[in-house]
Write a structure and sequence with these properties.
By secondary structure, this protein is an alpha+beta fold. The chain contains 6 helices and 14 strands.
């Protein structure tokens, strides 16, 4: 018998079995059972190789009908459970699955992309508070209110969205208590922020090289700090997991500049003095081009 008569069939056999040479799946296990490999050898293979098993009820019935033993099926179920646990404790920065752990912060689900993914919205800190309406305030002896506005640089946000009602996800410290955080020990000021209810969604007015949003007002009747209710864009939120919230605006947002504002500190002192040192963290984004 010529050597080629033996070598060529063996080569063909090697090419025919790569499906379970790298990652095991249900079909690979059925093939191994079909060639008469014993349970101990198959289980050893399951414990030593990466696997992607389907273990739903229908899949288990199909495996049993294909002659896979109960002990092998049990090993497959255990391997699938371990893989699921490992995936649940592995942090992802862009997985579109909101239940996969993400670093703490604010994200938008970019479902308008060919391959949807989470996009992190980095916080912009506004340390500048601009006043407006001072002349009217002075002419009316304080009857007309003077407004205070948070100012952030640039006319456009870094993150731009092709949806007028985008879906956001907020990940707080509770969601990643056993994992690492994005920014040092705690992205949210040592766990002080725990809910989207502590934020205001606002539209910015675009000026030359900056964006502005009203964050307070003052007149002779007193001072009000924070975003005025009439300037807030309402949104709904729901808790989908520990420390994880889904946030959706209650209406479509026309093209423009927006942001979720969280006031981290305010000035001290009565009247105008108490308004002048407001510091805000703003998760800003653009709608449209």
């Amino acid at each position: 018998m010529r050597l080629s008569t033996i070598v060529l069939p063996l080569a063909a056999l090697c090419l025919a079995v790569p499906a379970y040479a790298d990652t095991l799946n249900n079909e690979a296990i059925v093939q191994l059972v079909g060639v008469g490999l014993g349970d101990e050898a198959i289980i050893a293979k399951i414990e030593s190789a990466p696997a992607n098993f389907r273990t739903g009820t229908g899949d288990l019935i199909a495996l049993k009908r294909a002659g896979v033993s109960s002990v092998v099926i049990a090993a497959m179920i255990e391997a699938a459970a371990k893989a699921q646990t490992a995936a649940a404790t592995t942090m992802s920065a862009d997985s579109p699955d909101p239940l996969v752990p993400h670093p703490t912060g604010v994200y938008v689900l970019a479902d308008w992309l060919a391959e949807p993914r989470m996009v992190a919205i980095d916080a912009t800190t506004s340390n500048q508070t601009k006043t407006s309406g001072f002349l009217e305030y002075a002419l009316t002896s304080g009857l007309a209110p003077m407004s205070f506005k948070a100012v952030i640089p640039n006319e456009r946000a870094r993150v731009r969205m092709d949806r007028q009602r985008p879906v956001f996800y907020f990940y707080f410290d509770e969601a990643t208590a056993s994992l690492s955080h994005r920014a040092g020990a705690s992205f949210w000021n040592a766990g002080a922020v725990t809910s989207p209810a502590e934020f205001s969604l606002v539209a910015f007015r675009v000026k030359s090289n900056r964006r502005e949003a009203k964050v307070g007002q003052f007149n002779m009747a007193g001072a009000k700090a924070g975003v005025m209710e009439k300037d807030q864009i309402p949104f709904d939120y729901e808790r989908i997991s520990a420390g994880v919230f889904k946030v959706v605006p209650q209406r479509d947002l026309p093209p423009g500049e927006y942001g979720f504002i969280y006031s981290t500190s305010t000035g001290s002192g009565p009247g105008m003095a108490g308004m002048g040192a407001t510091t805000s963290r703003i998760f800003d984004f653009s709608i449209g081009s």
